[in-house]
Design goal:
single chain; alpha+beta; 8-stranded antiparallel beta barrel
Length: 150
């Protein structure tokens, strides 16, 4: 009986330690994230000609009060704060959709995977816009990591 109890306790402790390190479990429980972007790629189309440029634009955003059941969260960034729509897909990716004041859509995906050598989660953010009276179409995808705050 004592042997069974000890084995059971060891299994529970091992499972708890493993799930605490599991990125999907950590992301599932996250209610607040601080995401830092370190690089991006911008595609611009002018008069039908496409050009691509890698940039080192840096930025950060906090996603707070994340509630997947309600499908809501708040983003706080350089441009202020606003509400975003959130959902989780079958692979446990966390998706956030924001509509900016200018009407553009920003899609942010936090993946249940760690960036190399860290315990921070990988994030990609994409946005598209039309500029200069509809003469230039542009899009940008930024890469970064998210730290779980809560």
């Amino acid at each position: 009986m004592l042997r069974t109890t000890i084995l059971t306790l060891l299994m529970v402790c091992t499972t708890a330690a493993h799930s605490a390190d599991d990125p999907a479990s950590r992301l599932r429980g996250a209610r607040s994230l601080r995401c830092t972007y370190t690089s991006s790629v911008e595609t611009t189309v002018r008069s039908g000609h496409r050009s691509i440029e890698q940039t080192n634009d840096k930025g950060a955003a906090v996603y707070d009060d994340i509630n997947v059941v309600k499908g809501t969260a708040r983003i706080i960034a350089n441009g202020g704060a606003s509400d975003v729509v959130v959902w989780r897909d079958r692979q446990e990716n966390l998706w956030m959709l924001e509509r900016t004041p200018s009407g553009n859509e920003v899609v942010t995906t936090v993946f249940p995977m760690y960036a190399e050598g860290t315990d921070e989660l990988v994030v990609l953010e994409s946005r598209h816009w039309l500029a200069i009276g509809g003469q230039i179409a542009a899009g940008e995808t930024a890469y970064g990591t998210c730290r779980i705050l809560e």
